[in-house]
Amino acid sequence: MNPPISLAGVAPIDCRTAVARLWDFLDEELDAIRLAEVEAHVALCARCAEHYRFARAFLDAVSESWQEIPDTTQLRERVVETLTRQGFRDGR
Ligand SMILES: [Zn+2]
User: Fold this and answer.
1) What spacing in Å lies between the alpha carbon of 33 and ligand 1's midpoint?
2) Inter-axis angle of helices 46-66 and 15-26, to 10 degrees?
3) How far is the CA of 71 from the centre of ligand 1 (A)?
4) What is the average pLDDT across 63-78?
5) Residue 54's domain spans which residues?
6) How far is the CA of 77 from the centre of ligand 1 (A)?
7) Which of 7, 34, 41, 45 is the most exposed place for a label (fewest CB within 10 A)?
8) How far is the CA of 80 from the centre of ligand 1 (A)?
């Protein structure tokens, strides 16, 4: 469905590397090549794609709640609540 991505110069990376870089990726702290490696991996790997969606939703929930809730316990509850509403489980 999607057009093939040009992967010239992009090395395949494993799940551990992809997840480790994921958070930097979401913080937009990766350079273009490392970003492309993560994107290429996430495009092919369902497990990391799921992790990616979670991480993105998590960061959105945190950044939305951060300014209004300075208390970290309440912030955590708000984040968990937001993620649960979006269909993510809290890992239990
Ligand atoms: Zn993976």
Assistant:
1) 17
2) 30
3) 34
4) 82
5) 15-85
6) 29
7) 7
8) 24
